[in-house]
Design brief:
3-stranded antiparallel beta sheet
């Protein structure tokens, strides 16, 4: 496709796939929506990519070390 516009993707999307995206267009979408793209199918003619949200790092509640210098 020529003049590929970046689609409007709602915040609560579940599954969004890209069919034969150019590298430039795919990377533009990754940057705009802060997602990564993973190829789910590829052959000599077609490629299908899935958008995946970055998982946020969660802090674990680790109790402070009970051993303290006295």
């Amino acid at each position: 496709m020529n003049n590929q516009k970046v689609p409007k993707i709602p915040d609560g999307f579940a599954d969004v796939f890209l069919f034969n995206p150019s590298d430039t267009w795919r990377k533009t979408i990754e940057k705009k929506y802060k997602v990564k793209t993973d190829v789910v199918y590829s052959d000599n003619y077609y490629s299908v990519w899935k958008l995946t949200k970055f998982s946020k790092l969660r802090r674990r509640n680790i109790p402070p070390n009970k051993l303290s210098a006295s």
